[in-house]
Every structure is written in C-alpha cells, then in structure tokens.
Hints:
Layout: H1 9-18, H2 22-50, H3 56-68
Amino acid sequence: MRITVRIPDDLGEDVKRRTDNVSAYVTDALTEKLRREKRDEARRELLRFADTGLDASLHDINQRERREGDRDFSE
Length: 75
C-alpha cells in the first residue's frame, strides 16, 4: 500500500542518513509503535479490572502481549 505523509525535513534527512530503505525503516517503526499501543491497552484493561477481581484470562492476554512485544535487538 502506498501512503503519503509529510514529516519535518530534519526528521526525513535523519532517516535517510540511517537507512537505504526508508519504507522498511518506517514500516518497522510503525509496527513497533502499534505493538506498544496494544501492550499499553492490555495493561490499562488489567488495571481497570483489578478492582473488580482479576479474571485469569486477562493475565493470559497480558502475558501473550508481552511475549509478542519482546524486542529483537539483533541488528
């Protein structure tokens, strides 16, 4: 899919200095951002239900999200 976005010049130049493949770089960045948001959402849900008694399935969901969100620092 093609998406056109506008970013500040200094940010664009910094990205271009760091990679030859801007599309892959941006894809990785957006994927990580979405994973973080999903993990944060799961944590908020856990906190919201903590006062009413924790459902065991919520713990399982949180653990799965944490595993899926493990960062890969091999570069």
